Amino acid sequence: MDILGDILAPYSSVIAKCVCTVTCLHYMSGAFLLNEIRKVGCSDGYPPDPFLGGVVLTVLSCKLGTLMGDEAMVKVNMFGFSINVIFTMIHFWYASGPFKMKIWTKIGVAAVFTITCLAYANFEDPYKIEFRFGMLITGLLIGLVGMPLLELDAIINRKTTNGLSLPMTLAGAVVSAAWVIYAISIKNSMLTYQNALLLILSSIQLSLFAIYPSTISLMDKTPSLLFLEQKHSNKKTSDPLKDIQNKKLN
């Protein structure tokens, strides 16, 4: 790895710009999930965890970038923070009344956790904080990226990857690979292993798309999902029989 680092070191600034661009595009991939929510007309079936987790991680990653003196990390995570806040607001807008209360609870938990971590960073030993804070973020990233794998049994039983977003998963794999290359170029072993592990998790999820289709049969749909789809379709189409009866009355 040291030899590869020596080869990539002269191009670290160029690699950093590429990584920033790819990461910003990855943050925008959440728009695909929001588009699915828009089509259904309700976000109750889609947990806000990816967006709230993105807000927490970008704030903490900005702090880590400041500790490391990495300007590229700070800039890209500031952009990611803004995007995830906007996406969270849109998700909240499409939520029903009871589900909005659950979202508020999660927002409160996320805020308390973030403030606690930032406070810890200010009191920890300056010689140890970079590694320990980096490990904390690594754990959060693994939890966020690996969260869909908790539904692995359901995916295998139903033989469908419905509920997983292929664009977001693919973008995550590309971003992780880009950060691995950048970490090697600046010879940062923590970033290298962190993103290598994320790349493995993303690759596992991508393999599920190759094995199982991202469609869901009518028998597998929940009553709430069927109701939302029927409600959405009724807005676009009308009943031909009612149209004929109305014409006769006129």
From TrEMBL:
GO terms for molecular function: sugar transmembrane transporter activity. It is a multi-pass membrane protein. Gene3D superfamilies: 1.20.1280.290. It comes from the Eukaryota. It is found in: Cell membrane; Golgi apparatus membrane. It holds the Pfam family MtN3_slv. InterPro entries: SWEET, SWEET_rpt. The chain crosses the membrane at residues 76-96, 103-121, 133-152, 164-185, 191-212. PANTHER family: RAG1-ACTIVATING PROTEIN 1, SUGAR TRANSPORTER SWEET. Mediates sugar transport across membranes. This is Sugar transporter SWEET. It comes from Glossina pallidipes. The lineage of its organism: Eukaryota, Metazoa, Ecdysozoa, Arthropoda, Hexapoda.
